[in-house]
Specification:
Layout lengths: L7 H4 L3 E5 L5 H10 L5 E5 L11 H17 L4 E4 L2 H14 L5 E2 L5 H7 L4 E5 L2 H5 L1 H10 L4 E5 L4 H6 L6 H16 L4 E4 L8 H8 L4 E4 L1 H14 L12 E5 L3 H11 L10 E3 L12
Parallel strand pairs: 1-2, 1-3, 2-9, 3-4, 5-6, 5-7, 7-8, 9-10
Helix pairs in contact: 2-11, 3-4, 9-10
Bound molecules: D-glutamic acid.
The site of D-glutamic acid has 17 residues, from α4.
């Protein structure tokens, strides 16, 4: 039988990456490191952020709308660089588009459960992820012999969105969340929200090495490589990939915050476009 060749045109299309806001940029950093020749479209739904305080049905609809937007821009694959959107929507999206490569994420409870010596781990997540059946199932399957302390303090996601990751207010929220974990003897801390790697400097200053911090960005990027390889969709270009960002938030603030998180010396050089936050959601018409 003739071998099915995937046209270069399809391989050359960009990867679509979405998050409720700027958090997924912590995953983008790793994807760009592991896949330097891929063009990437990043959608920060900052105008609807945070997702984590919403009911699962709304999160699913927001994630679906962001995914549709990226597919309309010709994305060849999707990375849901958001634990909250993944836990609420990835199964649904895979069912909706069976042929489409989709990478999702769950908090890295499995590696944390493997590495703990005290048998106690902490998970810092959003409210929705903390309650998600998908997370509880992962805990059941991979950490049933481990005590898992979940904290979902409000305000952290907003702090990253507003470029306030290192302020005394943010440090106080972080301290209040991790101190009970330390008191109870946890030795590993899972960053179960993609916004939180940007709080790492503040966290490290508080923890002073007392908790091993685990973030899933690297693993998600590795999975993206695997998924594109399997689908034979790796971009053959030899030039460096281009990153284009879309935001549904305040474009001026987004430009400064995104450039800062990506450590770009010149915010004006960022390829950024505004997308309306109101995209006909059934719940917004109620
Ligand atoms: N970045 C998202 C995550 O990984 C959540 C932020 C939000 O609540 O919108 O869970």
């Amino acid at each position: 039988m003739r071998k099915l060749e995937i046209p270069v045109e399809r391989k050359a299309r960009p990867i679509g990456v979405l998050d409720s806001g700027v958090g997924g940029l912590s995953v983008i950093e790793e994807i760009r490191r592991q896949l330097p020749h891929e063009d990437i479209l990043y959608f920060a739904d900052s105008g609807n952020c945070p997702y984590g305080v919403r009911p699962p049905s709304e999160i699913r609809e927001l994630a679906e709308s962001a995914a549709v937007f990226l597919l309309e821009q010709n994305a060849k694959a999707l990375v849901i660089a958001c634990n909250t959107a993944s836990t609420a929507a990835v199964a649904y999206l895979r069912q909706k588009w069976p042929g489409l490569p989709i990478v999702g994420m769950v908090p890295a409870v499995k590696p944390a459960a493997r590495m703990t010596t005290s048998g106690i781990i902490g998970v810092l997540a959003t409210e929705a992820t903390g309650k998600a059946p998908v997370l509880l199932d992962v805990i059941d399957r991979f950490a049933s012999d481990v005590k898992v302390l979940i904290a979902a303090p409000p305000g952290l996601v907003e702090a990253v969105e507003d470029g306030q990751a290192g302020t005394p207010e943010t440090v106080a929220i972080l301290k209040k969340a991790v101190e009970p974990m330390l008191e109870q003897g946890a030795d590993a801390l899972v960053l179960g929200c993609t916004h939180f790697p940007f709080l790492r400097p503040a966290l490290e200053a508080i923890l002073q090495g007392r908790l091993h911090i685990i973030d899933s960005g690297e693993a998600v990027a590795r999975q993206t490589v695997r998924v594109l390889e399997t689908a034979k969709l790796l971009n053959p270009q030899t030039a460096p990939g281009h990153l284009k960002c879309y935001t549904s938030g305040d474009p001026e603030l987004s430009r400064v915050v995104i450039a800062n998180l990506l450590k770009l010396p010149d915010p004006a050089a960022l390829d950024l476009e505004y997308v309306a936050a109101e995209r006909n959601f059934s719940w917004s018409k109620k």
